[in-house]
């Protein structure tokens, strides 16, 4: 087991020389507490950093990492803290590098259709900025209004539009990063093709801060899609809902930009929280939310008529069309605020993240129902139906204390994750591994796990980069 050095007053002085006094947080418990956890589970998954550094550029980060390497101090990169796997929790103390000051959109290149950003840019800020220029960044997750671009890249975040546009990795053309030894290197850039050896950009995407610190990210842009239409589709059961996803795409002859799934429990809780009532709420066991994009209203009308016909042939209870912003917002609010709606009724609700082949969703949902009954725990589920990514959220029963619940909820989510892996899926589709799922990664990835550890050892031989994430320190 690696033993790391502690932060000393000498190191604090050195960091203040590099960054300035206002960019260093030390010996302030209340301020440090803000960087001790993410959205995984509050007090369950929390660890205090010894010091928080807020750099403004790659050169400062380079100096910090050179010093951290020389002194053997652990470094945890942190974005917005919106993660759900504990990736930004400094479980070995040491340094947290916060990107809150590295929040500039460096360039929007309309000629090459590329945005260059610092890691601390809020995802929605980029989306708004490029849309003003008639462009579109399609890699955003459901946490678009809170997440940072750097965190999205570090976890290879997904979202509702993966079926049409792919997850974050599909949109990353290049990364400027600082290696553990302090060297600043750019991988990729504004080019879209590169057959020159290993794809290091793809290796860094999803690495969760265990290999390097990102300082600039080159993102692919496309022309802004035209208008959108959303369909709300209730179904009598989950199997019928999911069996419609394939025919919906083939018979409408148009790839949806999103196909989202919510179960009946999620709808009941979400409707109370958002003060919205959905059609067929007492009768439907599942809903699909389908979004299409088109150049104009005539094109959209043709698309949703074909889609509606396919859905009704597939035993949908009805198809409701929202072709204006107000109605679309009503449909999406319950899905977008899904976890908040559940936590309003039980705050100690962790959320899982598993992915299976789409055709296996009914089977994994049956397993979740079995687990729910076995453990006598209510487990609402929502997810991205078109790509098989589901989010089970076990709710703490009233008669279970918090200490017991941490262990019980982890056991429930672990069983669901292992089952998903055995069905040809994976233990995480978009939230990442962090430290919460590292044992599941080890159990399900086998040879791939050993290769990942070897790469980690090669790039970070001292093991200072986000130790305890993905693997135990080597």
What does this structure look like?
The protein has about 475 residues and is α+β, with helices and mostly antiparallel strands. Among the domains are: about 105-225, Uridine Diphospho-n-acetylenolpyruvylglucosamine Reductase, domain 3; about 225-340, Alpha-Beta Plaits (2-Layer Sandwich), CATH 3.30.70.2190; about 345-380 and about 395-425, no CATH class. The protein is about 35% helix and about 20% strand. The protein contains 17 helices and 18 strands. It has a 7-stranded antiparallel beta sheet, sandwiched between helices. It has a 5-stranded antiparallel beta sheet with strand order 5-6-10-8-9. A 4-stranded mixed beta sheet has the order 1-2-4-3. A hairpin with a 5-residue loop joins strand 8 (about 170-180) and strand 9. The longest helix has 21 residues, at about 400-420. It is globular. The N and C termini lie close together (about 5 Å). The mean pLDDT is about 95.
Largest sheet composition:
7 strands, antiparallel
CATH topology of the domain at 105-223: Uridine Diphospho-n-acetylenolpyruvylglucosamine Reductase, domain 3
Proportion of β residues?
15-25%
- Work out the helix count: 17
Taking strands numbered 1, 2, ... along the chain, how are they ordered across the largest sheet?
Answer: 15-12-14-13-17-18-16
Radius of gyration: 23 Å
Shape descriptor reads globular
What's the CATH C level of the domain at 105-223? Alpha Beta
Structural category: alpha+beta
What portion of residues is helical?
A: 25-40%
Unreliable spans: none
Q: What's the average pLDDT?
A: 95
Task: State the CATH architecture of the domain at 105-223.
Answer: 2-Layer Sandwich
Total E-strand runs: 18
Give the termini distance in whole angstroms: 6 Å
């Amino acid at each position: 087991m690696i033993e790391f050095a502690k932060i000393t007053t000498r190191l604090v002085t050195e960091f203040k020389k590099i960054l300035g006094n206002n960019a260093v947080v030390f010996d302030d418990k209340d301020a440090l507490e803000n960087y001790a956890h993410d959205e995984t589970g509050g007090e369950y998954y929390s660890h205090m950093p010894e010091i928080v550094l807020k750099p403004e550029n790659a050169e400062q980060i380079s100096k910090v990492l050179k010093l951290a390497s020389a002194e053997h101090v652990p470094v945890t990169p942190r974005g917005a803290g919106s993660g759900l796997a504990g990736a930004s929790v400094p479980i070995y103390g040491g340094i947290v590098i916060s990107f809150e000051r590295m929040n500039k959109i460096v360039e929007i290149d309309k000629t090459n259709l590329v945005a260059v950003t610092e890691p601390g840019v809020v995802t929605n800020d980029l989306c708004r900025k490029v849309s003003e220029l008639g462009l579109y960044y399609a890699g955003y997750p459901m946490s678009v209004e809170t997440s940072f671009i750097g965190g999205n890249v570090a976890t290879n975040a997904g979202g509702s539009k993966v079926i049409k546009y792919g997850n974050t990795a599909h949109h990353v053309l290049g990364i400027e990063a600082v290696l553990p030894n302090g060297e600043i290197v750019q991988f990729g850039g504004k080019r879209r093709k590169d057959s020159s050896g290993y794809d290091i950009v793809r290796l860094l995407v999803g690495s969760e801060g265990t290999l390097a610190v990102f300082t600039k990210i080159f993102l692919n842009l496309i022309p802004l899609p035209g208008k959108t239409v959303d369909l709300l589709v209730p179904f009598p059961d989950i199997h019928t809902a999911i069996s419609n996803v394939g025919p919906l795409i083939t018979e409408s002859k148009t790839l949806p930009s999103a196909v989202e799934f919510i179960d009946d429990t999620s709808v009941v809780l979400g409707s109370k929280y958002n003060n919205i009532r959905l059609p067929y709420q007492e009768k439907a066991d599942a809903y699909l939310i389908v979004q299409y994009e088109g150049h104009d209203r005539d094109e959209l009308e043709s698309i949703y008529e074909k889609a509606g016909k396919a859905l009704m042939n597939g035993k949908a209870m009805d198809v409701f069309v929202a072709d204006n912003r107000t109605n679309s917002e009503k449909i999406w609010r319950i899905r977008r605020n899904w976890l908040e709606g559940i936590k309003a009724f039980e705050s100690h609700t962790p959320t899982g993240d598993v992915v299976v082949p789409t055709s296996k969703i009914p089977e994994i949902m049956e397993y979740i129902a079995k687990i729910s009954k076995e453990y006598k725990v209510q487990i609402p589920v929502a997810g991205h139906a078109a790509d098989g990514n589901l989010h089970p959220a076990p709710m703490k029963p009233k008669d279970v204390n918090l200490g017991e619940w941490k262990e019980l909820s982890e056991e429930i989510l672990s069983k669901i994750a292992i089952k998903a892996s055995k069905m040809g899926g994976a233990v995480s589709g978009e939230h990442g591994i962090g430290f919460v799922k590292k044992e599941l990664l080890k159990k399900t990835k086998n040879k791939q796990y050993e290769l990942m550890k070897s790469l980690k050892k090669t790039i970070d031989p001292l093991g200072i980069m986000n130790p305890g994430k993905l693997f135990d320190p080597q």
